[in-house]
Specification:
CATH topology of the largest domain: D-amino Acid Aminotransferase, Chain A, domain 2
Number of strands: 16
Oligomer: single chain
CATH superfamily of the largest domain: D-amino Acid Aminotransferase, subunit A, domain 2
Distance between the termini: 27 Å
Strand content: 25-35%
Structural class: alpha+beta
Shape: globular
Number of helices: 7
CATH class of the largest domain: Alpha Beta
Length: about 290
Amino acid sequence: MSALQIDTSRGVAWIDGELRPLAGASLHFLSHGLANASCVFEGLRVYDGRVFRLRAHCERLLESAAIVGMAVRWSLSKIVAAIEAVVAAQRIGDGYVRPVVWRGHEALGISGRGARVHLAVAALPVGDPYAEVRAAGVRVALSRWRRPAPDVAPVRAKAAASYLVGGLALAEAQAAGFDDALLLGPSGGLAEATGANLFVVRAGRLVTPPPDCFLDGVTRREVIALASARGLAVDVRRIDPRELGECDEAFLTGTAAEVLPIRAIDGRALPAARPIGDALVAAYRERVRRAGE
């Protein structure tokens, strides 16, 4: 899938406790977060001026930082307030928010001990960048890359280092003419796409892999709740790659993409009718526009 196109020449960002011009924001090239990947982040969407699932995302940001050993000196309430301040300062109606925590350049070394932990928040106006592809559906390929086991990488953290594998898989898929790629887990079962969680539909039941080697997405949890509220059976279990040839529908979920139907897998077209996927697309888009979290 294509990246969000953004303009960083204007607007403001919240950086280490204060609002500053976004255009002047910079990062030292010796920062530990850049050289040694001590960086975690979040992605949030703004709808009608409200940040959806703001607290859940901020809680996960702090959890991710703790998993990789970074002590964030700002409280949950302060981070929530910082995000709201950036959104309000720019009068964003619909947009995307990116908070980032990283270690700075105060010390070199593998551990990053002695390097200061920084926090920055940017918010950018974004409409519905996936509207056209959502209507058409995406074409995905099964990737040669795999998600690591939980004793190999911090899979429960939204860590920048974890996205290198997804980036490599996406680049290869796009070079071959696909929109995205599906990655297997260490046991050989399906895990997720390059930056979104996976669901398939078999015999009227919704099936999704357990998040044992990848991030349990906020949108993933929301879609499971929406499906359950509508009486849809949801199975969280291992999915063998061979089941892709037998599924009736498939779709991806993520903060940026929301609910994104898959129309073909490795060149095999899925049925054009997507009753469950289309219903969840509509339910999710109605959900994010409702008042409150």
